[in-house]
Amino acid sequence: MAYQSKDAYPRPDFIHTNHRWAPINDQWTILFDDEDVGLKESWHINGVPDKVSAGSSSPSAPSGAGTDTEAEAQRLAAFPELIAKGFQARKDGAHRENSKKPITVPFVFQTPASGLHEKEAHEVLWYERPVSDPRAKAEVDAGDRVLVRFGAVDYAVAIWASGHLVGTHRGGHVPFDVDITDALTSVWKSTGKGEVQLVLRVQDSPYDLGQPRGKQYWAPQPESIFYTPSSGIWQPVALEVVPATRLGNSSAGTVLKSNDIFTGVLDAEVAVLGRRAGHAYSVEIEGSLNGFSIGKKRENLPKDKDYASVKLLLALNDDQKKSTPQSVTSIAPYENADFWHKGLALWSPDHPTLYDLVIRLYDSEGKVIDEVKTYTGFRHLDWSKGDGTFRLNGKPLFQALCLDQGYWPETGMTPPTPESLKEDIILSKNMGFNGCRKHQKVEDPLFLYWADKLGYLVWGEMANAYEFSAEYKDRMNQEWTEAVKRDINHPSVITWTPVNESWGYPSLKDNVEQRDHVRSLYYLTKALDPTRPVNDNCGWEHVLTDLSTFHDYSDAPALSESCATLERTLNRDWAGRPMFIGAIGGNHGDPATIHRPGAPVICTEFAGVNIAPAGAKGDDIQPQGGGGDWGYTTASNAGDLLKRIEALVKAVTQGSHCSGFVYTQLSDIEQEVNGVYSFDRKEKIPAAEVKKIFDDAQRRYHDSLPTED
C-alpha cells in the first residue's frame, strides 16, 4: 500500500509558506546486510548491489539466550520469563543470499504494508533512492538549500548522497534532516546531471536491550505486552527547498510559551538557522484569532544569538472587544470564564481555541526571506496548589485518559494514512476519553496537530530501554531531549513521562546511580520545559516526581480495596513494586522517597480486560491472557466487559483522591486484545455506554470537591 501524503505536509503545525516540498516515500529499495559487509565493500560510494551473501545463518541470538536464563533475567528484571526468547540462529546450515527489493516507505520491512512482511531479524539495512535537484535556476542562484527531512528512522543511520556523507543520526523516535545541496552541486560539476543516489545505512539491533525501543519485542514472535519490532524508516520522508538563512522549528529551538493566561503575553524565542556573520536580521510575529488580527511585534536578532526573543500581547483590549467581528464573538460571550480570561481566549478540551501566528524573518533591507504559519493555544497548568488537584486554566481537571500505543494491523507503528491519527482521536473522544497517555512511543507529530485542533489531552512519553548502562544514559538523554523539544509547543501536551515502570532501571531499590539518572531526567525535563509536570517513573518506584502515579491491574474488588483511601493507595504495591522507594544505607546511600503532600494522585494504568474466546467462560481461562488472547483479566462477553469497566472505574474513583485515570487500552494490538476497540478500530461495546461511565466518573469527582469562590 502507498502512504498517501502528497497533500499532507509532515509538520502542519509549522508550515514555511515560501518553501517548496515534496514527499519522497516512493522509489526506495532495501537490502539486508546480515554479515555487515556494506561499508567494507563501499556500498555508500559505489551503490548498493543487487544481492549479497547472507551466510549460512541469520544473525545469532543474544549472548546467553537459552543457556543462562538467570544471568539474562538480571538484564530485564521485570520480564525474566521473556529474556531468553531472542531471535535464534537458523539450523539448516544452508547458504543464503539476500536480494535488493522495493520497499514502500514509511512502512518498515516487518509490516505487510511495506511489501515485504519479513519476520526474521536483520540488524543492518541499506536503503537506496535517486533524488533529483528540485530547485529552479532562480533558487540555485539565490543560494537556496535542499534538505531531506526524516520523521523518524529506527535506530542509528548514516546517509550518503552519491558517496558524500551528508549526515548521521541516532534515535528511533525523533526527526532530523540532512542537507544534500553540496552533494548535488558536486554531481552537477562532475556529470552535468542534477541527480544523486541517496544511500542510508541503518543499524537497529534486535538484541541490544540498552537501546530505547518501547514495546518492540526482541524476538520474532510478539507475546505478552510486546509487539512486532520496527526497523528503519517508519515516519514520512520529504524533500524541501529552503532559503540558506531561515526560521527553525521547535527541534531547532523555537519555543512559543503561551502559559501566561494572566497577562495574555506570548513569550517566544524564535530560532534562526544559517545566519551569516556581519548581516542584520529581524523577526516578527503577528497574531490573529479566527481571522481577526490582534497585534504584531518585531525584534532584531542580536549579534551574539541565533534566536530572537519576542513578547506579543494577544489578549483583546476593550477597544478591540468593541470592534471584533462575529468570527471572534461567536466563540462565546466575553464574560464566560470557561472560554475567556481578561480578553484572552483559552484552550481546553471543551473549547480548543487556537491563535494563528505568522512568523517572518527579515534581512537588513526589510525583505522577508522566510515566513512560517503556525499557532498557539493559551492554557495554564497547575499541579502544585496542594489540594490534590490537577488544574487547567485555574479549574480542577479530571483526566479520563486511555492508554494509546499507536499500532495498526498492516502498518505497525506507522499510521496507514495521515488521517488515521485524527480518526483515533475521534474514536477515543466518542468513547468518553478526554485524552490519552501515548505509551512507549513518540507519536508522529501529525497526531499532536490534531490533538491541538480537536481538544485532546496528551501525555508525552519516551520509548524506554530494558538495560541500564553508561551507554544507555547517553542514548536516553539525547533522544528524550529531542522528543521534548519537538513537542514543546503543542498545547495538547500536558505532562512529560520519561520512564515507565522502572524499565531500564531494574535496581532502584538499592542502586544510587540508577536513582540519580532518573533524577537527572526530571531536572533535564524541567530545564527544557518548566511549564508542565514531570511524571518521573510512571506506575511505581518514584524517585522525584510532580505526580504520584500508580498502576494496578487487579480486578474490581481488590482494586476497590487499594483505592478506598489515599493512605491505602500510597502504601500499596502491585507486583511487588511500591509507589515510592526506601532508603539506601551506607556512606554512599540515598534517602527514601515519599509522596509530596497535596500532589495529584492518578491511576495511570488499570483494567486491561479482554473478552474470552468463543467457547470459553469467565476469568482465568488464560492466565494473563496467554497465547493470542492476552489480557490482565477476562470478561465472558461484551456485556460482561461493560459491567467490568463500570466496576473498575468506580473502584479507582470511589475515594475521590484520584484526579484521573488511564484506562488500558484504546485498541487491541496483535495478541494483546484488551482494547475497547478491536485492532482494526471496530467497537467491541457501544461507545455511548462507555462514555456514560466516564462522564459519571468526572461528575462524581467534581461533586466531591469543596466549593470554590
Topology of helices and strands:
Elements: E1 15-16, E2 20-23, E3 29-32, H1 43-46, E4 51-55, H2 69-75, E5 96-99, E6 101-102, E7 124-132, H3 137-141, E8 145-150, E9 153-154, E10 156-161, E11 164-170, E12 176-179, H4 181-191, E13 195-203, E14 232-233, E15 237-242, E16 246-247, E17 255-257, E18 265-273, E19 282-289, E20 292-300, E21 307-313, H5 318-323, H6 326-329, E22 340-341, E23 344-345, E24 355-362, E25 368-376, E26 381-382, E27 391-392, E28 395-396, E29 399-404, H7 418-430, E30 435-438, H8 445-454, E31 457-461, H9 470-487, E32 493-497, E33 499-500, H10 512-528, E34 537-538, E35 548-552, H11 556-562, H12 566-570, E36 573-574, E37 577-578, E38 601-607, E39 609-611, E40 633-635, H13 638-653, E41 658-664, H14 687-704
Parallel strand pairs: 29-30, 29-41, 30-31, 31-32, 33-34, 35-38, 38-41, 39-40
Antiparallel strand pairs: 1-25, 2-15, 3-6, 3-7, 4-5, 7-13, 8-12, 8-15, 9-14, 10-11, 10-13, 16-18, 17-18, 18-21, 19-20, 19-24, 22-23, 24-25, 26-27, 27-28, 36-37
Helix pairs in contact: 7-8, 9-10, 11-13, 13-14
Question: Can you walk through the features of this model?
Answer:
The N and C termini lie far apart (57 Å). The protein has 709 residues and is α+β, with helices and mostly antiparallel strands. α7 (418-430) crosses α8 (445-454) and α11 packs parallel to α13. It is globular, with a radius of gyration of 26 Å. α8 (445-454) links the parallel β30 and β31. It has 14 helices and 41 strands.
